[in-house]
């Protein structure tokens, strides 16, 4: 979500083993916590496990999500443990096997998970501004010093950084863009999977990759943190708009819990509401801490573009996250 990969509920004992996470799933007593009582909480676990692929390092990501972790604890009385996935494939397998309850997917990895039979319910769409549908973009980039590279046509024969085979802005849309430029993304470039959006951008800036791709929020984010010098890279391509990234729950969770999680995410887990409730000092402070504005209703989701891009690219990743 990227943001796309930013939803992890932060806890001090984060990164416990997946097995330990599973052992904590005992039912709450009726009426525990703040999310309804009695039969409304029937079958609710006392702990849920939430997974994501960090866009940067896992420790910083979890620390940034502390306000939302506290919000869920306060509203629903549920603890959360985190599973930091090494790839979207790992998250899909973890949710498929029941080891992870909630995952923030990119729209492409969400599409893959559904195709692989993972039973999911979309609970919200990551947004960077109020009243947004969460749409974002993929960027094609190179180091600013590479004056001979001005478009995707110049990527031919180059060492090219992608993010992950199941990344929307880091692989699927870049593959589409390259094909539109007459370049096969597997045979006409030398693919390198950087593993994360920040790694892709930094590799391009350092020259480890001559060219590459990332989501549009990553270069300014790295500049702001001081990891990337201003104007160190240049953008030579911008994708069509990509639908927003969903946070999806396993349908093995009780329906009442999924309903209340959606309510908390959409109505309370945004910078304005968090600030009003005292989780941080101001709306701007909250947005800075969590790294995005909040969540739109899942009703705004339209992932038909992903299916169309899959059809056009004929990417094997559309049916396999490996």
Oligomer state equals single chain
Shape: globular
Radius of gyration: 20 Å
Placed side by side, the strands forming the largest sheet appear as: 2-1-3-10-4-11
Number of strands: 11
Q: What is the H/E order?
A: HEHHEHEHEEEHEHEHEEHHHEH
Structural class: alpha/beta
Low-confidence stretches: 1-38
Describe the protein in words.
It is a single chain. The strands form two sheets. This protein has a six-stranded mixed β-sheet, sandwiched between helices. It starts with 17 loop residues before the first helix and ends in a 9-residue tail after the last helix. The protein has helices at residues 18-23, 58-64, 66-76, 88-96, 107-115, 168-180, 197-206, 218-225, 255-268, 271-276, 283-290, 304-313; strands spanning 47-52, 79-84, 102-104, 120-127, 138-143, 159-162, 190-193, 211-215, 233-238, 246-250, 294-296. Helix 3 (66-76) packs across helix 9, helix 4 packs across helix 5 (107-115) and helix 6 (168-180) crosses helix 12 (304-313). The radius of gyration is 20 Å and the shape is globular. The chain contains twelve helices and eleven strands. Helix 6 links the parallel strand 6 and strand 7 (190-193). The relative contact order is 0.19.
What's this model, at a glance?
This protein is an alpha/beta fold and 322 residues long.
């Amino acid at each position: 979500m990227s943001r796309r990969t930013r939803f992890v509920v932060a806890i001090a004992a984060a990164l416990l083993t997946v097995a330990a996470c599973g052992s904590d799933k005992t039912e709450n007593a009726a009426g525990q916590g703040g999310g309804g009582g009695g039969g409304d909480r029937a079958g609710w676990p006392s702990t849920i496990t939430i997974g994501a692929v960090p866009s940067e390092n896992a420790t910083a990501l979890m620390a940034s999500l502390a306000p939302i972790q506290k919000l869920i604890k306060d509203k629903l009385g549920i603890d959360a443990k985190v599973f930091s996935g090494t790839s979207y494939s790992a998250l899909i397998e973890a949710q498929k096997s029941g080891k992870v309850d909630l995952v923030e997917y990119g729209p492409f990895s969400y599409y893959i998970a559904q195709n692989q039979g993972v039973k999911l319910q979309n609970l919200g769409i990551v947004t960077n501004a109020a009243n947004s549908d969460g749409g974002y973009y993929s960027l094609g980039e190179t180091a600013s010093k590479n004056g001979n590279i001005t478009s995707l046509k110049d990527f031919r024969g180059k060492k090219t950084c992608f993010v992950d085979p199941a990344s929307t802005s880091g692989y699927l849309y870049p593959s589409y863009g390259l094909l539109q430029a007459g370049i096969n993304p597997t045979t006409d470039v030398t693919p390198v999977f950087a593993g994360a959006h920040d790694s892709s951008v930094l590799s391009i800036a350092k020259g480890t990759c001559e060219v590459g791709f990332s989501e549009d929020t990553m270069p300014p984010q790295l500049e702001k943190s001081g990891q990337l010098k201003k104007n160190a890279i240049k953008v030579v391509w911008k994708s069509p708009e990509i639908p927003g990234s969903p946070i999806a729950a396993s349908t093995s969770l009780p329906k009442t819990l999924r309903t209340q999680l959606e309510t908390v995410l959409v109505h309370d887990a945004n910078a304005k509401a968090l600030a009003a409730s005292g989780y941080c000092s101001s709306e701007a402070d909250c947005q800075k801490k969590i790294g995005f504005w909040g969540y739109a209703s899942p009703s705004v989701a339209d992932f038909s573009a992903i299916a169309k891009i899959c059809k056009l690219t004929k990417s094997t990743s559309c049916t396999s996250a490996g």
